[in-house]
Fold each of these.
Amino acid sequence: MKILVNLEDWLKKQGEAVLRDIGIKQSQKVLDFGCGSGVYSIIASKIVGASGKVYALDSDEKGLLGDLIEKVKKEKTKNIEIIKTSGEIDFPFPDESLDVIFLYDILHLLENHERDKLFKEAYRVLKIGGFVSYHITHIGEVNLEEFHKKMKENGFSLEKKLKKPMFHWAWIEESTIFNYYKQE
């Protein structure tokens, strides 16, 4: 459901509050998997600050990374590293090196075997107590019950569920966000 909110207002004001509610904090290392034009990367970079880092990773099939590169230059952002991939699900990070992984508007684009690989890689690179934040989009294309089951099988525990206005392409919509924390 689309919400009639001024997109620019959400990006400048509400977006940061939403990510803080989700659990983004200063000094964290965040992976925005399938970042597209980097809406969440830019907002997260402001929260994590100079002592944190945001990794914006995408295959760039739709050419959206160019938009992110321009935003980073325009805002003189120093804590975003853009990583262009060829679509593989192998993360270029050491074990237990990240605090948060965003899976925002991306899972419906992945095949089941790619999702399985993604969950294993997420577990590998997240610190104990780190979390995967999943923003549900394209309901019906991802079996939510199966998703919960797969996350649990891969060592994650659902600990936070929120309803928040989230960015989805060119509009804001009321969405459900699930945070799955890495267990020992």
Amino acid sequence: MSRLKAFSVLLGGALVLPSAHAGIELIARSSLSGSLSDFSGLSTPLESGIAANLLGGMGSGLAWAGGNTFLALPDRGPNAAPWSGGDGFDNTTSYIARWQTVTLGLTAIPSGGLPFTLTPTLTATTLLYSKDTLTYGGATPALNGGGKNYFSGRSDNFDAGKNSLNALNARLDPEGIRVSNDGKSVYVSDEYGPYVYQFDRATGQRIKTFALPDTFAVANLSGKGATEISGNATGRVANKGMEGLAITPDGKTLVGFEQSPLLQDGGDGGRANRIVTIDIASGTVKQFAYDNQISGKNYNSSEIVALNDHQFLVLERDGKGLGDGSDAKVKQLQLVDLAGAQDVSGLSGEAALLAKAPTKSTFLDIRAALNAAGIGNDKIPAKLEGLAFGQDVVIGGVTTHTLYLANDNDFLATVGGVDNPNQWFVFGFTDADLKDLGAGPYVAQAIPEPQTSMLTIAGLLGVAGVARRRQGR
């Protein structure tokens, strides 16, 4: 099939590939260099000397936005490398929170032994701000003004007189992202508060705050995560707050969780996490227990997506692999069903929560699937964190659902002399696969398909200068 013909098939609807497909497997992968710049236009270096427009951390969160458009969410910015003067606030900087809009174009042209070619193209950068006056610590973004107060990654941007749920704190460490069904709003979860905010997709302005229970807050705040942990007995663990975020297919409910159990439930390394559901219209919050143990070991949870209105896939992983200089060992998707699960809002402690935790099962061993595609354990990203469903494709006459997985490269283009790019992996699964796993049905979120822009077309065909510089394979 010619590239132009493949492109026309894409515009017409689902992609069609003649070969057979069986089981959940990798169907495409691609990457973007970690040394590129985004479209923010921020040319002044951060306090650490790192460029404020570095295109990194794109897989901290990943949201499908209709068609082949996705929102890629960096976290609080580059702080993996220590810098002089950054000790008091964990080497964080005044990096302005943002999401990147990318097209992840699948074409039915085999590449690298996989059935599809995946072409990522950066199309926009959206900076996040509030009309409300925010509390900053040692650094106020120079871009502030005109009624725009930008959120930043500095861990000392808080009001010490209030608990961590204060919505006027300027610090934001975004980790989860989802798009509303009308395509106009974006929901972002954060580790600092923990917060869940609603932003206007067109402007990046915060338009709503969802209140979480006080039991998730810490009372004694610090710019240093270790100090914040030792200074509190209840609430979220510092740097391990609201990590994952899902939205039900009907667009009515947000579903998220902490990266690790609350301090009162065992803290970091504990087994009993909490899944939180938020009714978007009313703000009503419910809580459900989640057992994060796999084969006798407890793992932090990185992301969650909604298979339907009651079944969810949870990404659990170790911190091993590319970027860590080691070999990946555990990267799994676990299936959990909340149908009939009891609200545990009034319970506290690991034992009480585990008694109410619904059973879970392995949906996909990611490491094994990547190994089967020829990707060694040392090449599997250590921090696989972003997860989103995408457009269906057709393989061998069978409708195949797609699941996109992305990494957080910590804004480090290389680690130990080894390239450490922003990466995406696309898995395909069918209704028959779901039936075999005792899951399903899969219900896709109904988001309007964006109009195909000239930049998107250029990225797919590889002919425009800007798009060609941005795309990678």
